[in-house]
Amino acid sequence: xxxxxxxxxxxxxxxxxxxGKDDLLRIRVLTSEKTLKKEITTYDINRPGLAxxxxxxxxxxxxxxxxxxxxxxxxxxxxxxxxxxNIEKFFSYNVNCCIFSHGNIPPKMFIDLAxxxxxxxxxxxxxxxxxxxxxxxxxxxxFSPRTSIHGVLVEVFGVGIxxxxxxxVGKSECALELVERGHRxxxxxxxxxxCISGTLLIGSGARLIRxxxxxxxxxxxxxxxxxxxxxxxxKKQIQLVVSLEDWDPKKEYDRLGFEDQxxxxxxxxxxxxxxxxxxxxxxxxLIETAAMNYRLRKMGYNSAKEFNKKLMNWxxxxxxKSKE
Length: 324
Known about the structure:
Blueprint: E1 2-5, E2 10-11, H1 12-20, E3 27-29, E4 39-40, E5 45-46, H2 49-52, E6 64-67, H3 69-81, H4 85-90, E7 98-100, H5 108-116, E8 121-124, H6 128-143, E9 146-150, E10 152-156, E11 159-164, H7 171-180, E12 184-187, E13 190-196, E14 200-205, E15 212-215, E16 219-222, H8 223-227, E17 235-237, E18 240-246, E19 261-265, E20 268-277, H9 283-298, H10 303-323
Parallel strand pairs: 5-6, 6-7, 7-8, 11-18, 18-20
Antiparallel strand pairs: 1-9, 2-4, 3-8, 9-13, 10-11, 10-12, 13-14, 14-17, 15-16, 19-20
Helix pairs in contact: 7-9
């Protein structure tokens, strides 16, 4: 089961709340609290130098306006000259926020116009390049699409593997065996997935049940307490999906590995392996082998294709021998 959602906007107040946890932006607010209700609808930022110079044809007013040293000096020069038409025009647009780097304080006139237009003015002590990078990262994270998947996420030989399958097929028991063998648990039962930059799928456990597992017959167990911090991790990229299903004698399973299957999560295709489950099959060892085989493929070696190549060469040699 998969339920996805995507943040369409966040308020400046929420941005400050996120950044304030680790003081990532080193920021303070110069305008009143009511201005912080302004909403951000994109994670891109804009340098408003051209707008201040009077060029508004391509003014990205919907983005956060980042004032570096150059823009700050130019702003002071404009105001000191008394020609403030471009600044007044700047605030005639629905600007959502202005952030000044290097701890630079904008002129009082600029702050007053911002207050009147309900635009928050923020000042950061960070350098422009660092502020820009951190700001985009925070916003990109806040705007990235998310979903929740019923399954188990483990790290096996450095590969993030999402184990899916119907309830009772043995996902948690398989993951427990993998942890026992030295691998790490990321999430059990509910895996929260976030798509970063449209290509990376990052999985983590729900906060309430993080690092816990539900094992039928045992109940809830704490992997951190039982196996130590080396047996867990908070998040991991999903690189491979393993689907466990009850063995169906009537179904034809892939025995050679020529068919590349994929599983789509939030529009991103992930390699998929289907493993039939029945008594006597050691599923954890199969998943370990799948992880190692995935790493080989990433390095350019495909066991199935290599075998097929050898087989075709052997057939050609046999044909030549039969003709001779």
